[in-house]
Amino acid sequence: MSTSKVKTGALWNKSKDDLLKQLGELKSELGQLRIQKITSAGSKLNRIHDLRKSIARVLTVVNLKQRQQLRLFYKNKKYTPLDLRPKQTRAIRRRLSPEDKSKVLEKTKKRATHFPQRKYAVKAAA
User: Fold this and answer.
1) What pLDDT sits at residue 60?
2) What is the pLDDT of residue 42?
3) Phi/psi of residue 88, nearest 5 degrees
4) Contact, 26 vs 53, CB < 8 A?
5) Coil, strand or helix at 64
6) How many angstroms separate the CA atoms of 37 and 59, rounded?
């Protein structure tokens, strides 16, 4: 692997196989550097930090791509997994849907038609 950091922008165009292959290379290189650190006072100790961050970037892109595919799969399904649903707040999630909120009971409809709200007109003082 090259000695430069992995750029996230370059990872988005790669396929999953390429990403997993790159991840394996980065992990093996990290293992070698850790061994080198133990055996001798390595000059590339800051390289370990860069490798760990690069591994994290690759894993992040892999996971985000996977979630993106899952969102497409569940787009027109009746139910979506909990982790793909919008987080919001607990109160908002438990709130009635607009469709349920607009429903009115038969008894309430009859009461509204038979006993409408009375209108009063106030005469203006002249």
Assistant:
1) 96
2) 63
3) 50, -155
4) no
5) helix
6) 24
Is 79 a residue whose pLDDT tops 80? yes
DSSP per-residue letters across 70-116: HHHHTTTSS---GGGS----HHHHHSPPHHHHH---HHHHHHHHHSP
Determine whether 74 is exposed, middle or buried from the number of CB atoms within 10 Å of its CB (0-12, 13-18, 19+).
middle
Neighbour tally for 26: CB within 10 Å = 21
Number of C-beta neighbours around residue 8 at 10 A? 13
Q: Quick check: 17 and 62 in contact, CB under 8 A?
A: no
**Residue 1's pLDDT band (cuts 50, 70, 90):** very low
Opening angle at CA 79, ends 74 and 83, nearest 5: 75
**HSE-up of 24 (CA within 13 Å, CB side)?**
6
Query: In this predicted model, what pLDDT tens digit does every residue of 22-56 receive, in sequence order?
Result: 999 999 999 998 888 888 766 677 888 999 999 99
CA distance 108 to 94: 24
Residue 19 host element (H or E): helix 16-39
Tokens matching residue 25: 């290379």
